Amino acid sequence: MATADKIKLAFCLIMFTLADTTMGISDFASELIGYSGSFGPSPYNDPCAVLGKPATICKNLGEPDPNFRVKLVEPAYYLDLNDKKVVTTLNTGETITVKFDHNVVDYPGNLYGIDLIVFGNSCFGGSGNLSDATNMNTYTITSDGQFEQLDVSVSQDGSTWYSFSNGPWADDLYPTQAYKWDRTNTCWTSKEMDFAKPVDPNLSYDDFAGIAAADAIDLYNGSGGGTGYDLRWLTDYNNLAIDPNTGYRWIQYVRFTGAAENQGEIDAVSDAAACGDPTHPYPAGDLNKDCRVDLADFAMMAGNWLVCTYNCDP
After folding, report:
1. Domain ranges within the chain, ordered by starting residue
2. pLDDT value at position 288?
3. Can you tell me whether residue 146 is helix, strand or coil?
4. Which residue in 37, 80, 86, 299 is deepest, having the highest Cβ count within 10 Å?
């Protein structure tokens, strides 16, 4: 590997670490392992842009509005508000390899069985002009849009790779939806959607065509979008080793490859989360198993205060 490439890999790791204020397990890929290609023109040429969470607000390039929220009808592009590059273009044969700081397991409690979510900059087409002031209740999704296909493969050790050779493909369904929409007040909220929650993979293009963008957001059911992957969809799934600590098959590396005669963009990749999974365990005192300790748990304890079922004599 060239010295310049080694410097870039080290720089990406340092910048991601500084940005990760929690310093704990991240739901997103945290390390750039390698890359091959020149990628797109600037600012779509930085493989480091794949690390961390998906873009939520981007600057507008040559548009009246200075910035915009990323939504399923308006994709991430250009720069974020800190002038950080947000997506990377992969041309045919170009690759980017990233790593999680933990094992991404095939957890049976994951919604729809999805273990991994990949975010690009695809989008649904729509009717009329678009800005953050556009009413999503009346903005209609049309049959067109911006959808591309990138190949995804995974690995446990960074050497032996397993491909989703029959799809799904990254930068396709389902476009990123960064924030929740307030139907009643017809405005965006400051509450982010869940980037670790997958969209129902049974939804197709036809389910979105002709409906209002607000209805499409409802179909996401709180998810931040992205293409979901179930490790069991791998044809050689049984070749994955089992994690002795969790009892589940797992991966830690993800590689994106520009497909033949097709280019596409990658923004981020997340570990699909479920309450109680190995990286989101139930905290002590969580009596109702919702992954938080609050008054609901206290009420359960108070309701059973001094209840005794064994050796109860004073």
Report:
1. 3-281, 285-314
2. 83
3. strand
4. 86
Q: What is the DSSP letter of 231?
A: G
The residue whose two tokens read 């493909």 is 169
At residue 8, the 3 state secondary structure works out as helix
Residue 14, pLDDT above cutoff 50: no
DSSP H or E stretch at residue 208 = helix 205-208
What single-letter DSSP state applies at residue 85?
Answer: B
C-alpha span between 264 and 258 (Å, rounded): 7
Show Cβ contacts of residue 289 under 8 Å, excluding neighbours closer than 6 positions.
275, 276, 282
Tell me the pLDDT tens digit for each residue of 189-223: 999 999 999 999 999 999 999 999 999 999 999 99
Would you say 150 and 90 are in contact if contact means Cβ atoms under 8 Å apart?
yes
**Whole-structure pTM value:** 0.88
Residue 275 has pLDDT above 50, yes or no: yes
**What gap in Å lies between CA 47 and CA 208, rounded to an integer?**
31
Token match 């508000």: residue?
A: 81
pLDDT in tens, 283-298: 888 788 778 888 887 8
Partners of 249 in beta bridges: 242
Q: What is the mean pLDDT of residues 230-244?
A: 96
Residue 158 in tokens: 């960074």
DSSP string, 249-282: BEEEEEEEEEPTT--EEE-EEEE---TTSTTSPP
* Residue 213 neighbours by CB distance under 10 Å: 26
Residue 154 φ/ψ, nearest 5 degrees: -135, 160
Q: In terms of Cα–Cα distance, which of 180, 155, 157, 153 is closest to 169?
A: 153
Asked if the model's pLDDT at residue 3 lies above 80, the reply is no
Is the Cα torsion angle 102, 108, 109, 113 positive or negative in sign? positive
CA atoms within 13 A on the CB side of 3: 0
Which three-class secondary structure state does DSSP give residue 89? strand
